[in-house]
Amino acid sequence: MSAPAERARSSRPRVPDRCVVPGCEEEVARHLALAEAKRAFSNLPDSGRRAPLCRTHYKEWKKATRGERTLDRLAW
Ligand SMILES: [Zn+2]
After folding, report:
1. I want to staple 51 with a disulfide (CB 3.0 to 4.6 A). Which of 12, 34, 57, 62 is the partner?
2. Which residues surround ligand 1, an ion (CB under 5 A)?
3. What are the tens digits of pLDDT across the range 59-71?
4. How far does residue 76's CA lie from ligand 1's centre (Å)?
5. Around 38, how many Cα atoms within 13 Å sit in the side-chain half-sphere?
6. pLDDT by residue (tens digit) across 31-54?
7. How far is residue 32's CA from residue 26's CA, in Å, rounded to a whole number?
8. What are the structural domain ranges in the chain?
9. Within its chain, how far is the Cα of 63 from the centroid?
């Protein structure tokens, strides 16, 4: 697994500033790579490489990925 490149700043983001989770219309608090976001939300639309998330969903994402990380650590 390699980290996604974070330097594509010159191109305009196609995603509007709305949470990417279907049905959610809250303001965006954080931008994640779509692949990262999909770890927690598998039903995201493939509308680009970026996944803007609102605060609520960012928290959910954090929880979900933190759980994964804990499992990784236990495997050590
Ligand atoms: Zn949301």
Report:
1. 34
2. 19, 21, 24, 26, 54, 57
3. 999 999 886 666 6
4. 33
5. 12
6. 999 999 999 998 898 878 899 999
7. 16
8. 28-74
9. 12
**How many angstroms separate the alpha carbon of residue 39 from the centre of ligand 1?**
15
Distance from the alpha carbon of residue 30 to the mean position of ligand 1, in angstroms: 10
Instruction: Say what the pTM is.
Output: 0.66
Please list, in sequence order, all residues whose beta carbon lies within 8 angstroms of the beta carbon of residue 68, skipping any fewer than 6 positions away. 39
Amino acid identity of residue 15, one-letter, is V
Report which secondary-structure segment, H or E, holds 35.
Answer: helix 34-37
pLDDT in tens, 1-20: 555 555 555 566 554 578 99
pLDDT band at 26 (very low <50, low <70, confident <90, very high): very high
Q: How many helices (H) and strands (E) does the chain have?
A: 2, 2
Exposed/middle/buried for 49, CB within 10 Å: 0-12, 13-18, 19+?
Answer: middle
